[in-house]
Automatic annotation (TrEMBL):
InterPro entries per the UniProt record, alphabetical: DAO_C_sf (IPR038299), FAD-dep_OxRdtase (IPR006076), FAD/NAD-bd_sf (IPR036188), G3P_DH_FAD-dep (IPR000447)
Highest taxon above the source species: Bacteria
Organism taxonomic ancestry: Bacteria, Pseudomonadati, Pseudomonadota, Betaproteobacteria, Rhodocyclales
Protein name in UniProt: FAD-dependent oxidoreductase
Alphabetic keyword roster: FAD, Flavoprotein, Oxidoreductase
Cofactor: FAD
Protein family: Belongs to the FAD-dependent glycerol-3-phosphate dehydrogenase family.
Record-linked PROSITE patterns: FAD_G3PDH_2
Domain FAD dependent oxidoreductase: 29-384
Species: Aromatoleum toluolicum
Length: 525
């Protein structure tokens, strides 16, 4: 079967054809488990090197952690403060690459650190000047000292009393879920196969070696035994579960934590600049960021023992965020002002058998099991590409594949245009607007159009209302109540595209309504 089967000249992805290709392929060079940032990055890297690559996701692409980030592509000023200079240097280089390779999804963003004590200006100024220095050839703008008046111009709602000035510096912002979709489409463009809602149930282990996976289609129940030269476990906080499928008694690698984000109206921080709160009560930094017409505030860092698919804020986390930002704003937001709350789980490296065969690299870890399962975990969105490069280098050795070099450092992602663009569809915009319903919003107050819903079903493998309103469009994260109000119309349009009936629409609207209620101003526990 041709590598282009399953998609037409207009870029349509047909699930029936994609499943047919899965059935008809005897073996894959690389099978990647997990459709988040790391797994998608690995799939793009492997397929761009010419390896036959399959990616399987149990739910939807970026359903978990990878759609719940703080929306920053950055070197990490807090890692600088911790003295983790190698990570900062690597992340700054990757920031530059993402700005070049996905200009439709990643853009420069200026941050301002307010100073309420005279010593803050030289302290913050020196640290951010060093941040500039570490950027080197990858710099995107110099930091500068602002006087009090200029700081208020940048952050109009900042509390003026006692303000001495501020320090402005540059990093970058992105749409995490849309970048994940761009990676999925890039992988497909390169000849790879990606399927969501196709969970892996187990590993194929023969003579002590991991030679494939067992999986099933969540929609039809059809089962698959899939042969692979190498299996890459890129399942984020669930990586230990896949490792135990091979070795039930293996010691865990991860100690997950969670980060909570609160979204409020733009009136709380109008303008284009972001506010960085330099130190919270627990010693972290807090970001207050303009994002898609709202303001995003976050995040927390709380240990989590369980791994729910839809994590909720722990007791005190929402109030912690609101209390941390309150001293900096003339009118701080309250619980009543919250439009949406979302929570992401972080796969932090914190345990494991140090005698195992693995390569530790800064904030991520690559492990090769006795049976050849390659696990990649840890890290962050900014460095996903570098993590994928190291992982595929390892996978090639494990599987005895041709040692082909990585080419992703300069690989422009699906939809990238020459020059910067604020349109998340990039060069695909013309194809989107050629569909019925272009320019017609699905609900008042949302930018999502009927054509974009149809495009999500036809070209981005959206299979339900949540897929559209949480990840193809970010309505659930921006305004949970507004997203719930739009759900019936989105369900109707998806039903037309996917051949579903009224009962399916009713069930989808009910499921999404229950989810939206979890995002809309959750009560303190």
């Amino acid at each position: 079967m041709s590598v282009t089967e399953g998609r037409d000249a207009a870029g349509r992805l047909d699930r029936v054809s994609l499943l047919a290709r899965l059935r008809e392929t005897d073996a894959w060079d690389v099978v990647v488990i997990g459709g988040g940032a790391t797994g998608l990055g690995c799939a793009v890297d492997a397929s761009s090197r010419g390896h036959r690559t399959l990616l399987l996701e149990a739910h939807d692409f970026a359903k978990g952690t990878s759609s719940r980030a703080t929306k920053l592509i950055h070197g990490g000023v807090r890692y600088l403060a911790q003295g983790n200079l190698p990570l900062v240097h690597e992340a700054l280089a990757e920031r530059s690459r993402l700005l070049a390779n996905a200009p439709h999804l990643v853009r420069k963003l200026r941050f301002v650190v307010p100073a309420y004590h005279w010593l803050d200006i030289p302290k913050f100024g020196a640290g951010l000047a060093f941040y500039d220095l570490m950027s080197g050839m990858h710099g995107i703008g110099r930091s500068r000292v602002l006087d009090a008046a200029s700081t208020i111009v940048a952050l109009p709602t900042l509390r003026p009393g006692g303000l001495r000035g501020g320090i402005a510096y540059w990093d970058a912002q992105f749409d995490d879920a849309r970048l994940a979709l761009a990676l999925m489409r890039t992988h497909v463009d390169l000849g790879g196969l990606a399927l969501n809602y196709l969970p892996v149930d187990g590993l194929v282990v023969e003579d002590g070696q991991v030679n494939g996976v067992l999986a099933h289609d969540a929609e039809s129940g059809e089962t698959f035994r899939i042969a692979a030269g190498v299996v890459v476990n890129a399942t984020g906080v669930w990586a230990d579960a896949i490792r135990r499928a091979e070795l039930p008694q293996v010691r865990p690698l991860l100690k997950p934590s969670q980060g909570v984000h609160v979204v409020v109206d733009a009136e709380f921080l109008p303008g284009r600049d972001a506010l960085l709160v330099p130190q919270t009560a627990d010693g972290r930094v807090l970001f207050v960021i303009p994002w898609q017409g709202r303001v995003l505030i976050g995040t927390t860092d709380s240990p989590r023992q369980d791994l729910p698919l839809e994590p909720q804020p722990l007791a005190g986390e929402i109030d912690f965020i609101l209390d941390a930002v309150a001293p900096y704003l003339v009118r701080p937001p309250t619980r009543a002002d919250v439009r949406s709350v979302f929570v992401g789980l972080r796969p932090l490296i914190g345990a494991g058998d140090r005698s195992a065969t693995r390569s530790l690299s800064r904030e991520h870890c690559i492990e090769v099991s006795p049976g050849g399962l390659v696990t990649i975990t840890g890290g962050k969105w900014t460095t996903y590409r570098r993590m994928a490069e190291e992982t595929v280098d390892t996978a090639q050795s494990v599987a005895g594949l041709s040692r082909r070099p990585c080419v992703t450092a300069e690989l422009r992602l699906h939809g990238a245009e020459a020059g910067a663009s604020s349109d998340p569809y990039g060069s695909a915009r013309a194809a989107v607007d050629a569909l019925p319903g272009a320019g017609r919003p699905v609900h008042a107050g949302l930018r999502l159009t009927e054509a974009e819903v149809r495009y999500a079903a036809r070209c981005e493998l959206a299979r339900g209302v949540e897929d559209v309103l949480a990840r193809r469009h970010r309505a659930l994260f921006l305004d949970a109540a507004g997203a719930a109000a739009a759900a019936p119309q989105v369900a109707r349009l998806l039903a037309e595209e996917l051949g579903k009936d009224a009962a399916w629409c009713e069930a989808e609207v009910g499921r999404f309504g229950a989810l939206a209620r979890q995002y809309a101003r959750p009560e303190e526990k």
